[in-house]
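Cystathionine beta-synthase
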Amino acid sequence: MRYVEHIADLVGNTPLVRLGSVAAGISATVLAKVEYLNPGGSVKDRIAARMIEAAEASGELKPGGTIVEPTSGNTGVGLAMLAQRKGYRCVFVCPDKVGEDKRNVLKAYGAEVVVCPTAVDPDHPDSYYKTSDRLVTEIDGAWKPNQYANPENPASHYAATGPELWEQTEGRITHYVAGIGTGGTISGTGRYLKDVSGGRVKVIGADPEGSVYSGGSGRPYLVEGVGEDFWPSTYDKEICDEIIAVSDADSFEMTRRLAREEALLVGGSCGMAVVAALRVAAAVPAERAADSVVVVLLPDGGRGYLGKVFNDRWMARYGFLPPTEGATVDDVLRRKDGSIP
Ligand code: PMP
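Structure:
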């Protein structure tokens, strides 16, 4: 019989898929690492185990303890999966702009979710930051992983994501492209790839226009999970050879193309990273294209965004699509005739 003891044992070892139609006309090989195939549905499953194990080893997290983290999604799922297995309680703090569906996913895994108003100053006692700090102080046995400052976040990618990519490409990877949120993924994976290749692998960050990593001031953007308005300690400022800023419009258009043309139903930060990867691949000089292997990491799946990037009305509201009421029967029949492109 072939089985594992727990779903969390299946984290990692995600596959690489070659991009076809969206990479048409590009000679370099472009491969996507599909992280939504992790059991909790995102790259963040990878950091939960190491952060928890390190806190157990240091005594910060004791049996029966409570994990308190400000998170609205992917990291919460990864932590909740492990917490359930190990008998910890989870309390996640979310701003009220986070959709109900995402909060319900966390609750479905058994976590408690505290919702805070978005429209208050960070120093207000009800803010997302202050509330999580207060819960950590007041709950007996509480521990906060703090993914923005926890060295186990990049360390888990150095230990696993990087070696996986090196083995899967048989050492032929030449460029690694990823978005930057906490910076854990790109810093850990990128550092491993640079170490193992003697500095040959180029590391390229993808960033929403407006975020600090590509020189912005923290101006708002709609792509979720990437970009920041501050510099977290989990991001290694030396790791990127280049950072490419991508607009929301380009990110969302590519996200929709990935679903339609590659059957990859992924989140908006994936579209953003693919736009950057294709720019990198297209810029490879012709004489080096045959030997160039560009790998782009796709952090999560698209089901958490059905009301946003995959919703025509939402896209139209932000000006990314013309106003639409959806297709009529006539539209569908005419399209079949080829009369609508
Ligand atoms: N995309 C999504 C959807 C995410 O949730 C995250 C994590 N915040 C990232 C990209 C970036 O990953 P990292 O925090 O490791 O930089």
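Residues 152-168 form the longest helix (17 residues).
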